[in-house]
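Quarterly update from the structural biology core.
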Amino acid sequence: MEMHATIDEKKLEAFLGKAVSDFGAAVSAALVLIGDKLGLYKAMAHGGSLTSAELARRTGTTERYVREWLVNQAAGGYVDHDPATGTYSLPHEHAIALADEKSPFFVGGGFQVITAMMKAEERIAQAFLSGDGMFWGEHDHNLFEGTERFFRPGYTANLVANWIPALDGVKAKLERGATVADIGCGHGASTIIMALAYPKSRFFGFDNHAPSINRAHRAAHEAGVADRVLFEIAGATTFPARATYDLIAFFDCLHDFGDPIGAAKRAHETLAPDGTVLIVEPMAGESIQENLNPVGRVYSGASVLCCTPNAIASGQTVLGTLATEGQLRSAVTAGGFTRFRRAAHTPFNRVFEARP
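Predicted structure, tokenized:
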């Protein structure tokens, strides 16, 4: 390759350093998932300073693997290393994010999602050439469990405490007893959180992925809410009107649909006259420049590997993970809604309210 431009060696060295850092981040994603699955972080969370041999004994793993896993984790700043004693420790602040699944800061599910999506790389590369899509259900099985584990902490922290109270009159309805549809419910985390908080209401969760619905059924029984939650296999444009719904929710899924307008129309058809639609979407920016940050990097990558391919496979409209507020508004209003507003937000979510 001929190079005619003058090379800024410092700029080149800086970029190569960044590339090596990204190599480490990419390969370490799998190692974080291993630490999550095998309980290595949980064992370190309350274990003080440990050698690789001690951590291996506590977790029933092989020391030779654990030895370099710890080096990788220390090099990435996930665990601390004491060279004087040859031991490793997990800072309390890191343990909250890596070892406590009930924490609103838990990130283990995110690594499960990322490693699952990466397994589709060959298929997505072909899609770049063919223009074909790829359904969610065709991805590695870890994507579905990882998605639930990734989003559940945010829903646990915000859904009942902040998002529902931000909707006009919805909290009082749910407390009195309302009928709710959760579209694209996956494993049912959002549905179950609402059912636990509002025992007088009735909840229906719909998703077109049968294994996810089966898992949601089990989760409802485990949570003790099966008496007021029903999960069913159904699509976003065809979900049944078991009743007129007082609240219809789309949690982090409207941008995945190939027919978001059709989904909005079905919501409009099945919603009570004074009902509300809750739409939770990723915190994407309104311009390319607003997405040039770590969050935008994650969301744009997920859009290429997962969300956009599903929309292409399932319809004619492709919003993708970086859908702007204006694009979401257009889809929802085209579905028949006259009112659309941003009701709340977090660093990772935009929360919208739509009314007839």
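The longest helix spans residues 9-37.
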